[in-house]
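Appendix B. Raw example, untouched.
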Amino acid sequence: MEYDYKIKTHNKVFKKNKFIYKFFKSAKKYNNEKNFYLECKDKLDFIPTLFYFSDKRLLLIINNCGIPIKKNEFIDNIQIIKDLYNKIINLTGYYHNDLWYRNVLRKDKKYYIIDFESSGKEFKDIHKNSKEVYIN
């Protein structure tokens, strides 16, 4: 898979069957997400599984957990999603720091939280001036 993703401004994500190939432009965001998956893989069953990583290419290969939810589904199920988020904090000590509807997937009736590139052991309110619906 040849793609010059580093000259673009955002991460590049490719979906192939059951896998997501996620190339990062930022080493910090790559390491945040990689470290989260490595440290939390056995503690949470509602996050993607990390199958492969390449520090040289800033690449993560994870499983495709489902379809993105819409904003109204996020709002309608906010308590379920908050409960999952609280499990992340309580079981791992990590804060997602970017949890909004675009970072929640659904497969059948199960929700998955994705995109841990802003995660860390410190809470950061990165969306404090946003008009979107977020969970802090």
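End of appendix B.
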